[in-house]
Amino acid sequence: MTKDLLEFKQDKILIKGLSKGFSAAIEVPGDKSISHRAVMLGSLAAGKSRVSNLSLSRDNLATVAAFRKLGINIKKQNLNGSPKDFVIEGAGLYGLKEPESVINTANSGTLTRLLAGILAGNDFFSVMSGDKYLNSRPMRRIIEPLSLMGAKITGRNKNAYPPLAISGGGLKSIFYEVPVPSAQVKSCVMLAALFAEGDTVIYEKKETRDHTENLLKLQGYPVNVDVPVSGGSLITVKGRGRGELKPFNISIPGDFSSAAFFIALGILHKGSEITVGNVLLNDKRTGFIKALKMMGADVNLAVTGEIPERTGDIKAKYSALKGITVPPELVPDMIDEFPIFSVIASFAEGKTTVTGAKELRVKESDRIKAIVYNLKALGVDIKELEDGFEINGNPDLKNRREPRLTALNSFGDHRIAMSMIIAGLILKNGKIEISGIRCINTSFPEFFDTVSRLINQ
Predict the structure, then answer these.
(1) Which residue from 8, 9, 356, 375 could staple onto 380, CB 3.0 to 4.6 Å apart?
(2) Is residue 1 a part of any domain in this protein?
(3) Has 4 been annotated as catalytic?
């Protein structure tokens, strides 16, 4: 690690800005969202599935541990000479065993919400609990539809938060309109529908990421997706006794949200360009790229594969950017990228406005407050909105001379921590200290190694 740019002290990091441009080609770890689902659906398949390039983030390892606790044999094997390759010996839809102790869902909202759907369909008792951040995240959004299907679920604070206790089995099909765009809620109901009597129909006004649908189709399970004239999507999942999940072989593409940090570094640091290879390019995950192009960013995609998910390379070069108003239809498709997007907007010319993103308040932290707190400390002209923020960007901020140390806080949120590290690398003349960086292991334990390769060229 280059000591003059990054210096670690316990759970803090001291950052000095980059001085020279770089040209690099990198890859990022396997996609978190697909990794969660591959382990879950592989465990429910009738046979042996092989998964390569599984994310080794703390969240995804918690999913592996959860299904081992439910009786599934999951082994690490070097299928392609990589420590990220696993074999899952699926036990079929009804092969899970009642856990003898609490299932630890760590910091993962995806694991907690999707696993709830699976546990609700199984005729046994289980309890899920995570860390203090996870246990402060809202769960009524999944408890309500699962209860309509017949599950018995209780949670802390009048069924609002984890820990969650689930007495599963005996589910019935429902028609459910997802009240807010959420792939987690949609997927939770879809997974529960596998165990329900009859056909479950889910309507979402705004289509969200469809990784669950894609994997179920890969497994040959009867799932139908229609697009009504009014927009959105209608998803029909056949219920109990209508099909088995076939085992599969899959190589998981790189995580788009992890790639976003390095795309930002490439377009913000003068004289730089970066190519991130083998990245997931699902249309419902690339709203960030569409927003960057609206700002004038030199970012190009090259598609290299289509099944079961679109995959390709992303090339980003240093660009002069202009502020934009993010279109409402892009917000759900870039919800995880708003922390790093806020950093990019800080160095763009003119105003950038984000609204309709209230979901940011119930992520690993209140991300709106965390973004505003940290960017204000860096001298950014930012205004907090109930459902977003306004930033009056300033390209000259990169050259700000600040002799004192600026202290930032991750608020225990991995995306806030990594976004502020990128901001610190862009500020040429400042010293930035960020506390609470261990949370980065939640999603991207290889983050510092990747940064090191760039700055040590």
Answers:
(1) 375
(2) no
(3) no
